[in-house]
Amino acid sequence: MSIVFSKIKQILHESYSIQLDQIQLETNFELELGTDSREFFELLNDFENAFGIEINLDDVVEIVTIQDAVTYIEKKLSICEQSEDHLF
Question: For the whole model, what pTM was predicted?
Fold first, then answer.
């Protein structure tokens, strides 16, 4: 289990009272977790704060499942690390 997935599970469980057994990589935010658009944007904001990234509004439509979120966040973190490496 990736660190990003573990953190997402923790956020969903602690902040949104979602049972851990409901949180799988293939879980759909809207269909299976019942998040409406307001809740989804709050959740994305929680992800931004937890991981120190910015999620572009244009990219939001691509984040449908937890796997999509994990992949997106891992990509953003990788880009951040590469940018930091070039500073030194």
Answer: 0.88
| Bridge partner residues of 1 (DSSP) | none
DSSP 1-59: --HHHHHHHHHHHHHH---GGG--TT-BTTTTT---HHHHHHHHHHHHHHHT----GGG
pLDDT in tens, 8-50: 999 999 999 999 999 999 999 999 999 999 999 999 999 999 9
Q: How many domains does the chain have?
A: 1
CATH of the domain at 56: 1.10.1200.10
Length of the chain (residues)? 88
